[in-house]
Amino acid sequence: MIPKLFGSNPAHCSGPSHGAEVHGEVHDISYYLKCMVGGVFACGLTHTAVVPIDIVKCRLQADPTKLKGMGDAYRALNANGKSWMTLGWLPTFIGYSFQGMAKYGFYEVFKDLYGGVAESFLGPEKAYSLRTLLYALSSASAEFFADILLCPFEAVKVRIQTSPEGAFPTTFGPAWSKISANEGFKGFYKGITPLWCRQIPYTIMKFVVFERTVEFIFKNILHATRDDYGKKFNLGITFLSGYIAGVICALVSHPADTLFTAYNKKQTQGAFMEEIKKIYHEMPAGGLWKGLAPRIVMIGTLTGFQWWLYDTWKTWWGLKPTGSTGPKK
């Protein structure tokens, strides 16, 4: 169940530093900090590992009229050797580590907070019946702040990965300095609106589908809870549920991702919506869906491993893996 931020058990509720007991687990500051660190590993490591796939995807989105598919993008990139495969790895690692910290850590905070409010006004059973809405609100709130941390690093990454050879620095420090010198603060945050449009629906699906898939597997297929199985089996279910969530995430958020890539690629002059409309009208038929195949592979695998790393970290600390709990009695 989505619990209260501060529970009613006196042994665990003398103040915020003590937290609440949730299904035998204390959710206090230490718990949330552990979840934040788990998010760093989950997002920072996985996004960095799939940088080559991300580059192919970004090139397809940035040049939809020149590149017809993954093969074209790969051959164009590979023409001058293999050095392209690590382009943008450092801003990717830094940016998505910050994003993961906020995405997972704040999700746990907001899930407890919103769940506590719902229980206070509606009672445990009614609050549990609204769990999908509460998962969505919690993940959206977390992603809003996570994207503020991610945006400047994502702007640098996209520019490095999509600029023609020789037109833009290919390492993090010089690339950051060039954007700062030419465009200032706006250059790092001009893409925040399309980033929110891409990431918030993505994250809502990532967390809602994951939570409900775990619940469906244990309730309707296994007729059990996570507590009835061991660590390895639970982590296998985590990966499977995360992969399913990732595929759906890729489908839902891909058009916004394509627009974000094209928008960040160039120095824009006009208002945001004017530039977006211009980019859209310049795209060939089906341009919004360019790069979908590699993105499905990338996001499905990425999301599966993110949830696996996150729950592995949690269980290493003796915490419960995410999902599949019932209403408080």
Assembly context of the chains: single chain
Overall pLDDT score: 83
CATH architecture label name:
Alpha/alpha barrel
Radius of gyration: 21 Å
Q: β content, as a range?
A: under 5%
Order of helices and strands: EEHHHHHHHHHHH
Ranges where pLDDT stays below 50 over 5 or more residues in a row are 1-17
**Biggest β-sheet: strands ordered side by side in the sheet:** 1-2
Q: Give the full name of the CATH homologous superfamily.
A: Mitochondrial carrier domain
**How many domains, as an integer?**
1
Q: Determine the number of helices (DSSP H or I, runs of at least 4 residues).
A: 11
Shape: elongated
CATH fold annotation: Mitochondrial carrier fold
Membrane topology: Multi-pass membrane protein
Transmembrane segments: 233-253, 292-310
Main location: mitochondrion
Solcar repeats: 30-113, 130-216, 233-316
